[in-house]
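Quick start: what a row looks like.
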Amino acid sequence: MLEQRIQQHFIDSADLKYQASQALSQPIGSAVQAMLACVTSGGKVLACGAGASASDAQLFASLCVAGFERDRPELAALALACEGGLLGTVGATGSGGNATQYLARQVRALGQPGDLLLTMSVSGNDVAVLEAVDAAHERDMMVVVLSGRTGGALAARVRETDVLICVPHDRAARVRETHTLVLHCLCDGVDAQLLGDQEMPL
C-alpha cells in the first residue's frame, strides 16, 4: 500500500510535467530571453519566494553564479533574504514598518532599472511577494512570476513586459516540483544562448 502511494507520486508528477510542457515552453522561453537581456547588459537577477519557495530562490541564484551543467562566467544573481532575519530586524528598529515588506524593502534597496525580479509563489497570493513585485515595478524592473493554479493575485500584477509561468495544478507539492524543473530550464536556456547547444554528459 505504501509503495503504491509512493509510485503514485512519481506518476502524478510525471503526468503534470508532460501535460504542462507544451503550455509552459513559450513563457519559459520568454523568461530565458528576459534573463539573458538582463545579465548581458550589466543587470542582475533578484530571486525570492514565499515559504518553501524561498529555498528554490536560493537554488536558482546559486546555479546562476556557480553554473548549471557547464563551466561559464558567473551570472549576477542574488536570492533575497527570507523572512526570518529581516522580520526580527524590522521589529527591533521600532519603525512600525509592515512586517510583510521584508522582500519589497530588499528590492527597493538593491534593485535598479534593467534588473529582473524572479518571484515564486505557489498560490500567487502571498502578500510579501505581491509587495516585492510592486517594488520592482517602482524600480522599472521586469518581473518573472512562477506560480500555480491560475496565478492568484500575482497574475493581476503582471504587466505586458513581465512573464507569468503558471503551473496548472492545485496541489502545492506538484507545483513546487514543476517549479524546480522550470528553474533548471531557465538556467539551461541561458547557458544554451550564451554557449551554444551542447549534448550534456551523463
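That is the whole record. The two ends are 33 Å apart (CA to CA). The chain has seven helices and five strands.
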